[in-house]
Write a structure and sequence with these properties.
elongated; 102 residues; alpha+beta; 4 strands; two-stranded antiparallel ribbon; two-stranded parallel ribbon; 4 helices
């Protein structure tokens, strides 16, 4: 985890144990949202926590990675649309409608 311009009284910096709500608030306060990784002994709790954080991809007990079979992209200032997979191909096309009156 990288903290930039954090409040000097923040529990993360003073040794106090951060609460899950603090992690969600800090993560959602950033202007970025490419991917997130949650590490936990309880995968169900990890998924619940990941759902509360805005990001393009979420990984529980794994590093953020790209797979050509799955769409990958971020939210906020992290990326423009999605890439690989079928949904990614559509990001690079211009769908056009033609209507010819009889």
């Amino acid at each position: 985890m990288v903290l930039d311009d954090a409040d000097v009284e923040a529990r993360l910096l003073t040794g106090g144990k951060p609460l899950p709500g603090d992690a969600v608030r800090l993560a959602n306060a950033t202007p970025y949202g490419l991917g997130l990784s949650v590490w936990t002994a309880d995968p169900g709790r990890g998924v619940a926590l990941a759902r509360r954080i805005t990001s393009g991809a979420a990984f529980v007990n794994a590093i953020v990675a790209s797979d050509p079979r799955l769409p990958f992209g971020g939210t906020k200032r992290s990326g423009h649309g999605r890439e690989p997979a079928a949904v990614g191909i559509r990001e690079f096309t211009n769908t056009r409608t033609y209507w010819v009156a009889a």
